């Protein structure tokens, strides 16, 4: 991404500097992602891709006051985030399936730290989206007037009175340096070949992204690290280097899918939730693919948020919940391109994946 059209070179709280994408890259992004969430900048080192609106909240995010009883769920996007987020929240708060808070919006009971960067003037809301994003908000903050003004969902995270399960897609290098010494972090990764297909569907489904290209073009965006929160390689390497920290739990989508109960048992020991066999059964039931596909609030968003022609044909937010679907959908040429990228970014750094 050389020959930048204009270097902003502002330094943000994490120490990264802000740079504009070059002309050719901007033209490609604008063509393939005509939605308003295509207005991105790069943060160096590593060329992290974030929405320009992140610059309005970066200082709040970096200086966020984590508490010792927080649990942070950290992922690169489309690695099964909602699944592991619901697992952790329910293990900590709803093991007997009797907590009325379970009906509240996921991003209210389990705040998404940097979600306010996605709030743009073009975003439309209806009853379904208001319920999906704000139901129950009055339970989690001392004073609703506190939410007035900018960054309302960040304020929910700050004002949350209960032990928090906080979601982020940000890498370690963009979060407080003392994060792991302050609270526990659960990190889940996914093999890139399934991850790229899940991301492609997400970018096609959401009107705010509105991907209009071919699968070849999306794979190119992916391996060129042009999607939000990229580069995945650096994201996972930062987590991998911390894998032995006592406050860090690392799993993969494939491991969780292959033997969910075994991974929940390990997670239970890490979180100290002390679940009974019956409570494990409850968590398995409430976070099963079928239950989440039928009941989850993000499944109930409609044409205001989603391209419903895509949703009706290919599925909504929670779609397949499988590992290994790439084998039927990625072409040999795309597979070869991904293999080269995987070797450079993961295999050469000692990180391997299961692909089924």
From TrEMBL:
Q: Which Pfam family, any one, appears in the UniProt record?
A: Sulfotransfer_1
Q: What is this protein called?
A: Sulfotransferase 1C4-like
Superkingdom: Eukaryota
Q: Which family does it belong to?
A: Belongs to the sulfotransferase 1 family.
Record-annotated Sulfotransferase domain positions:
68-348
Q: Name one GO molecular function term.
A: sulfotransferase activity
Q: Which UniProt keywords apply?
A: Transferase
